[in-house]
Design brief:
single chain; 282 residues; alpha+beta; Glucose Permease (Domain IIA); ten-stranded antiparallel sheet; two-stranded antiparallel ribbon; 6 helices; 34% helix; elongated
Length: 282
């Protein structure tokens, strides 16, 4: 008896019903359709998949998430805006100082005097003048590092990147430092829009990629086995397989009107990320 009841309920799910629309004045049927409960359920599931696909496309290719409250906090946006403002202020201050020096030198030339060059004394030079005698422990540690041990300063341990002579890839300041625990495998830098991005050392371009958002990425394999990655570029001027020299321009940083992503620089060795600040003076 229970089996018959189940079979009857299953038949009811697949049994089609007639849905019709009639003219209330004439009573004639104007439209009809046959549909079953299982068909209605399938149509609802298909509609749900279509809506999910549309939302996925909107999230991937439009700034929809930035409009949602709490997705990107105002603090992070304000921080990036503040960093860019500081860069601009620093650039303006340098230009104003150059203009002042230029005007002062012009006045000196008009008066028949010799213009002078202003030099800024390096703080490290002044500090180095204060020589502190080494202690006994320092002397022992120095002899240990200068001997023939595995950590000697004058020995060649076979480390490919121990003698790297790299330059910074961009004129700017570091806004976020290396932190592999949070997924930041390099450093993020802020600078003026459309700043030149240069190769840190000689090498070969192994990849030139781009994203639908308009960001470009360049990967360079260097002679010592190290790999440098330059992310969030507005454009690139190198091609895959091209040989680049140290300091050669590979692209330009993003324009803040087109992208809010900061320039990101990574160093890799043997498939492991390295802290760029340990090898490059920014």
């Amino acid at each position: 008896m229970a089996n018959n009841t189940k079979r009857g309920a299953l038949r009811e799910i697949f049994r089609k019903r007639r849905i019709s629309i009639s003219n209330p004045e004439t009573g004639n049927e104007t439209w009809y359709a046959h549909i079953s409960p299982i068909g209605i359920g399938s149509a609802l599931i298909a509609l749900a998949f279509i809506i999910f696909g549309i939302l996925l496309i909107l999230v991937a290719y439009t700034p929809l998430l930035d409009m949602l409250p709490g997705y990107r906090t105002d603090a992070s946006k304000s921080r990036e805006t503040l960093v860019r403002s500081l860069i601009r202020i620093d650039s303006l201050e340098r230009k104003m100082n150059d203009m002042l020096i230029y005007n002062e030198n012009r006045i000196l030339v008009v008066d028949g005097k010799t213009p002078t060059m202003r030099t800024v004394q390096n703080d490290t030079t002044a500090r180095n003048k204060q020589i502190v005698p080494p202690s006994k422990a320092d002397s022992l540690f120095r002899r240990q590092m200068e001997n023939d041990s595995a950590y000697a300063l004058n020995t060649s341990s076979g480390n490919a990147h121990s003698n790297i002579n790299a330059i910074k890839p961009m004129e700017g300041i570091i806004s976020e430092r290396f932190n592999a625990k949070v997924g930041l495998y390099g450093v993020r830098m802020a600078g003026t829009p459309s700043t030149q991005i240069v190769a840190i050392a000689a090498g070969t371009v192994t990849a030139v990629d781009w994203t639908p958002d308009g960001d470009h990425c360049v990967t360079i394999q260097h002679d010592n086995g190290m790999v440098s990655v330059y992310r969030h570029l507005s454009s690139t001027i190198v091609a895959k397989g091209q040989r680049v020299a140290s300091g050669e321009v590979v692209g330009y940083s993003a324009d803040e009107e087109k992208s809010e992503a900061l320039f990101e620089f990574e160093l890799w060795m043997g498939g492991k990320p390295l802290d760029p600040e340990a090898y490059i003076i920014f």
